[in-house]
Amino acid sequence: MLTDGAGRTLFCSPVCPGSCADITQARQLSLPRLLTSGPFMEILADAGYQGMGAQTSGRVVTPLHRKFKKNSPDVSVSSTASRT
Q1: Is the pTM value of this prediction over 0.70?
Q2: Model pLDDT for residues 8-46, shown as the tens digit of each residue
Q3: Distance between CA 64 and CA 81 in Å, rounded?
Q4: pLDDT band for position 57 (50/70/90)?
Q5: Is the predicted pLDDT of residue 80 greater than 50, yes or no?
Q6: DSSP the chain
Q7: Under a CB-based contact definition with an 8 Å cutoff, are residues 37 and 63 in contact?
Q8: How far apart are the C-alpha atoms of 62 and 43, rounded to whole Å?
Q9: Which residues contact 60 (CB under 8 A, 6 or more apart)?
Q10: Which of 6, 13, 21, 31 has the fewest CB atoms in 10 Å of its CB?
């Protein structure tokens, strides 16, 4: 489902049987093509849509991909320490 800032529905995909990743469903419905051919708008998406930004000329914005090694540092501690 795609909504605007006020919560109004702009797009809602049909229900499909079985399980399918959201990004796969979006690609099967040609959403990247629809987004690039329409008026410019930025779409905030969760990390599951990483890669769609490149397919839509930057219209889909996702969180940065982070890969942590085992025993990664605590981000809140390091960011707090750098402020003091």
Answers
A1: no
A2: 998 888 888 888 888 888 888 888 888 888 888 888 888
A3: 23
A4: confident
A5: no
A6: -EE-TT--EEE-PPP-SS---HHHHHHHTTHHHHHHHS----EE--GGGTTHHHHTTT-EE-PPP--PPTT---HHHHHHHHH-
A7: no
A8: 9
A9: 35, 42, 43, 45, 49, 52, 53
A10: 6
Contact 52, 45 (CB under 8 A): yes
Q: Residue 48: count other Cβ atoms within 10 Å of its Cβ.
A: 13
- Written as six digits, the tokens of 4 are 């605007």
Any idea where the domains of the chain sit in the sequence? 2-65
Residue type present at position 30 = S
Label residue 62 exposed, middle or buried (CB < 10 Å: 0-12, 13-18, 19+): middle
CA distance 16 to 25: 9
